[in-house]
Every structure is written in structure tokens, then in C-alpha cells.
Design brief:
Blueprint: H1 3-21, H2 40-48, H3 51-54, E1 59-64, E2 67-76, E3 91-100, E4 102-111, H4 116-120, H5 132-156, H6 171-177, H7 195-204, E5 218-221, H8 223-235, E6 251-252, E7 255-259, E8 268-271, E9 277-281, E10 288-293, H9 295-298, E11 302-314, E12 322-324
Parallel strand pairs: 1-9, 5-7
Antiparallel strand pairs: 2-3, 4-11, 5-8, 6-7, 8-12, 9-11, 10-11
Helix pairs in contact: 1-2, 1-5, 2-5
């Protein structure tokens, strides 16, 4: 199911639920204020429809309240020479990485006057409120914008920075804080003439423990890299099928090339999905969505949309991950 299909499905689900429960918000002066549970699907859709999360290209932990502890187990001396006695030389070390979600919100105020002619023509008045279908459309628009922002922040986020992706620490920032050092490629992977050589450099950087694990090890890149890669393969004379498997998965040297729209152009990440963890908040504690017609409340001609949610990232074992550009 695509992102748009997911959002459309949630809208239909919401409308059907309203009909089944026979909620009557209509009045002579106010049309339909959505609050609480009825608007909640938009929040979940906005967060979980980010491509990296929707496609489960990383491990997603849902219903995280404040923080989650991720256990990390390491063993040593599991195999030893055969003997009659039971020996306890094998050592197991259990540590944990902490994923903490960041509380986030959207507070948007719109003047209904700017949209009134699109609703019901010149006869539409301030006292009629906001039509149900337009309230849905506004919520859908805001959810889609939140989704795009979440996708970028998942990868590039730095909450101590002053950039546009400062909502929470993304996977790159979290990995760097855990001791990761970015690699530098000689050949850029966002240009047709150098992408093949650049991808070859990336394969050479795969950690020894992951080499040959074609089913799990992924190379995450910006979609532009996939585009120029397919073009480069086509220019070799073998056609695009040499770069794409029968299942529509793009591969290089046996490893999956995964589209990550939130990554900057030219950047790459080598990891297994379980090595990259994104946590989202608990629906019953931190998620809320409201669309509020302010006319009957304060006499203004405003319409407000609010959303509250929480997201965070963690890279439990930085040594299993390689990043760079």
C-alpha cells in the first residue's frame, strides 16, 4: 500500500467510524469539530507513512513512552573442546542502548476567509463553519507535510542544530554520537559517470561480519543515486534489467540498494534493518490530533489544526553500521 493509499484508507476508516457511532457535530452555526480519537489516524499516518518507516526499511518500535531500552547481547568462547564435565567458560555480556522519543507538535492556524470561495461559493458565510470534506482535506494535507519532514529528520535530524531538520536526533547524528566516523568516497554516487565506481567503494567498506549477508545487509541511498545507477547500467549496453531483480529490488554486487528519500544526495548508509531503530510514541499518551473551528469559541474567522506525537532514533551497535559520502 502506497503512502497516499494509506492516508486515503485512514480517511475512509474515520468517516465509516463516524457513521457507525452516529456522531452528530452539525449545528446551525458550526460544522464538525474533529477531536481526540476521531482525528488520531491522521497522526499515525503522518508519522508511519514516511517511506523509511512505511516500507520497514529500519526496525520500528511503536508505542514508546518516553524511552525504550534495547538489549544488546555479546558472547565469547561458546565452542570448546569436548569433555565429560560441564564447563562455564562461555561468557555472555548483556548491555543496552536507550532510545528516547522527542515530543513534537504541529500548531497551524488558517484564516477561513482565504478558503471560503473554494467551499460553497459566494453565498457561504462565516457562521456556516468548515465543511466535513474540506476539514478532511486540510488534515490530509498537514499529515502529508508532516510525513515529509519526519522522513528527512529520521536520517539527517540534529536537535542541537539550527537547520530545518532539528526536531530530533536522526540516525546519522545518533550513530556519530555512538562513536561512528563518516567515510569519504573518491567517486560520487550521485553522478552517472562515477556512480558505479562509488558503489564499488561502498561495497569494500561493508563490515566483515556483514560481508556476503545479501538477504539482510542494505545499502541506503538517496533516490537520485538509484536513478543515475540505472542510467549508468543502461549505458553499459546491458539494459536496466542488469540492475534490477525480478522482484523489482535494485541490487549492486548482490546487496540491496534501498531508496531513502530522507538521506542527502550523495550520502550512503550500510546497515541491516535491525541495526537502525526508530521509535514512535504511544497513541494513548502522546498522540493527539484536532481540527478546531474557532468562530464559535472566540469569534474569529480562524481554523486551527493541531497534532502531537513523539519520534526518536537509536543505533544499538554502531560498529555494524557504516556511513559517509
Amino acid at each position: 500500500m502506497t503512502r497516499i493509499e494509506c492516508l486515503q484508507f485512514l480517511i475512509k476508516l474515520k468517516i465509516n467510524k463516524m457513521a457507525q457511532n452516529k456522531h452528530n457535530f452539525a449545528s446551525p452555526t458550526v460544522t464538525s469539530n474533529y477531536t481526540g480519537e476521531l482525528a488520531l489516524p491522521y497522526v499515525h499516518a503522518a508519522v508511519l507513512s514516511a517511506p523509511t518507516l512505511a516500507n520497514r526499511n529500519v526496525m520500528v518500535l511503536e508505542n514508546v513512552r518516553f524511552k525504550a531500552n534495547i538489549p544488546i547481547m555479546a558472547t565469547a568462547d561458546l565452542i570448546e573442546s569436548g569433555a565429560c564435565d560441564f564447563k562455564t567458560d562461555a561468557a555472555t555480556t548483556l548491555t543496552e542502548a536507550v532510545l528516547e522519543v522527542q515530543d513534537l507538535m504541529v500548531n497551524l492556524q488558517l484564516c477561513k476567509k482565504n478558503f471560503r470561495t473554494f467551499w460553497q461559493g459566494d453565498d457561504y458565510t462565516i457562521n456556516n463553519g468548515v465543511p466535513d470534506d474540506y476539514a478532511d482535506a486540510l488534515l490530509l494535507f498537514v499529515a502529508a507535510e508532516v510525513q515529509k519532514s519526519i522522513e528527512r529528520n529520521i536520517w539527517q535530524g540534529d536537535k542541537t542544530g539550527s537547520g530545518t531538520h532539528a526536531h530530533f536526533d536522526g540516525l546519522i547524528t545518533t550513530w556519530t554520537a555512538g562513536g561512528g566516523t563518516a567515510e569519504s568516497l573518491t567517486n560520487a554516487i550521485d553522478a552517472t559517470g562515477t556512480v558505479l565506481a562509488g558503489l564499488g567503494e561502498i561495497v569494500a567498506l561493508i563490515p566483515e561480519a556483514l560481508v556476503g549477508d545479501y538477504d539482510n545487509t542494505q545499502i541506503y541511498v538517496n533516490p537520485q543515486t538509484l536513478d543515475v545507477y540505472n542510467i549508468a547500467v543502461g549505458q553499459l549496453g546491458g539494459g536496466y534489467n542488469n540492475a534490477t531483480s525480478d522482484n523489482g529490488i535494485t541490487r549492486f554486487s548482490g546487496y540491496n540498494l534501498v531508496s531513502a528519500p530522507g538521506l542527502a544526495k550523495g550520502y550512503f548508509v550500510i546497515a541491516r534493518p535491525q541495526d537502525l531503530v526508530v521509535g514512535v510514541g504511544s497513541a494513548d499518551s502522546v498522540e493527539m490530533a484536532q481540527s478546531i473551528d474557532m468562530t464559535p469559541l472566540d469569534g474569529s474567522d480562524n481554523y486551527r489544526i493541531t497534532m502531537r506525537f513523539a519520534v526518536g532514533t537509536q543505533v544499538p551497535v554502531p560498529a555494524n553500521v557504516v556511513m559517509g559520502e
